[in-house]
């Protein structure tokens, strides 16, 4: 297909439809321009913080004040529940950070009494770190998201060892063994 496009369309036409390339250096990082070219009229995210067990907004506000001096500008929301027709993945993303939207999403399966609050705090804190410690350019022009400074800041929190231990020992059993992920996918 690319070959045919190259043959039948002149260079000017190819340049007009080609995606714009953006090269970032660690010096020009502004914290919100990592994803530079979001299309106009893109899907808007509805921020949803209602909860059954874990009040992610209260946790976010407390962590923002205690660990970041109120500097985190991102909002927090529960992620979407997924769909019935999509095959189940072998892993779960507990949380994500979008620098373009300034938004932290937490997986809805985390809103369970089987998931301890210290683990939810750990995930939220990890995602908040992405705003203050953006990716750095490593060797080979590859962006390193969880670089040494990021890992050090994450490990400096008091609940870090407990959260990592819980994740290794229980998260697979809790999220997959007892159907938390399946329960949210089927809703």
Low-confidence stretches: 1-39, 181-187
- For the record, give the distance between the C-alpha atoms at the N and C termini, rounded to a whole number: 40 Å
Overall 3D shape: globular
Q: What is the class in the CATH system?
A: Alpha Beta
Number of helices: 7
Would you tell me the structural class of the helices and strands? mainly alpha
Give the tally of structural domains. 1
Mean pLDDT: 75
Give me the side-by-side strand order of the main sheet: 1-3-2
Oligomer description: single chain
Classify the helix fraction into a percent range. Answer: 40-55%
Would you give the CATH topology? Zincin-like
Computed CA radius of gyration, to the nearest angstrom: 20 Å
List its traits:
disordered C terminus, 187 residues, Zincin-like, two-stranded antiparallel sheet, 3-stranded mixed beta sheet, single chain, disordered N terminus, mainly alpha
């Amino acid at each position: 297909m690319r070959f045919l496009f190259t043959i039948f369309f002149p260079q000017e036409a190819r340049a007009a439809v080609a995606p714009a390339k953006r090269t970032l250096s660690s010096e020009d990082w502004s914290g919100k321009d990592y994803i530079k070219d979001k299309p106009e009229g893109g899907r808007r995210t509805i921020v949803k913080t209602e909860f059954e067990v874990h009040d992610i907004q209260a946790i976010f506000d407390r962590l923002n004040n205690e660990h970041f001096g109120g500097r985190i500008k991102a909002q927090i929301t529960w992620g979407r529940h997924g769909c019935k027709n999509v095959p189940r993945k072998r892993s779960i993303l507990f949380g994500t950070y979008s620098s373009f939207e300034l938004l932290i999403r937490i997986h809805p399966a985390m809103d369970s009494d089987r998931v301890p609050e210290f683990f939810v705090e750990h995930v939220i804190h990890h995602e908040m770190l992405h705003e203050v410690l953006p990716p750095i350019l490593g060797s080979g022009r590859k962006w390193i998201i969880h670089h040494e400074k990021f890992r050090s800041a994450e490990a400096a929190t008091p609940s870090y060892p407990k959260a990592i231990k819980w994740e290794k020992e229980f998260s697979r059993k809790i999220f997959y063994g007892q159907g938390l992920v399946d329960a949210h996918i089927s809703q």
